[in-house]
Protein: Type VI secretion system protein VasD
Organism: Cupriavidus taiwanensis
Amino acid sequence: MRQIEFRQEPGSEPAQQRPRRAAVAASARLAAGLAALACASVLTGCAVGGTLLAGAASGALEAVGLKPSNLPESQKPPREVPLKLYAGTNLNAAADNRPAAIVVRLYKLKDPTSFLQAPFDTFIDPQREQKTLGADLVQVREMTLIPGQRYEILEKVTREAGTFGVVALFRSPAPQRWKFAFDTAKSEKSGVTIGLHACAMTLTVGDAITPAGAAASSNLNLVSAAGCRT
């Protein structure tokens, strides 16, 4: 029997490969269409994306303190006052010249007026203290220091408390040297360093608030100017 031989013309393509090639071409066109759609979506969202990026950048600047926050003052995080209390070896020695432990109270206040005007006895009686300070008192806490002790802390003060007060309950307190009041915002930057001695506190770092009508004291860092009461 005579065999019939089929020959492919030069440059022609086998018939069985044509469907595969058509499928590849369709896939390519689909991919191109999807890419174009994605590009259009990106271009359309540029304005929105730019706004989001700008907001994120603004928040980052606020977080590192390079841009003022738009939050209300009451919603901002508490201030942190660097507080250092250094007790001398003659702490609370009084007239008998015998050192003793002392109770120190830290007050967070909205206004310093009632605190500065209150006499020493006010802070010995809790009920009288509460009545005198009233709505100005935001928070109070106390600690006990012993002779020679050093106490350092970042004291957290809520934003509503514009004043930070310190009271030392000496056995024989020197006049005007057993309590100090400070502006919280200023103290957050400068810090407060207080020495506690036989009958008085000294102030070496920080600016104490002066009571209304009183002259500013320039020797708060000198214990010799206190004059212990006997």
Summary: Confidence is low (pLDDT under 50) at residues 36-50. Residues 210 and 216 are 6 Å apart (CA to CA). The chain has two domains: 15-63, 76-225. The first helix runs from residue 18 to 44.
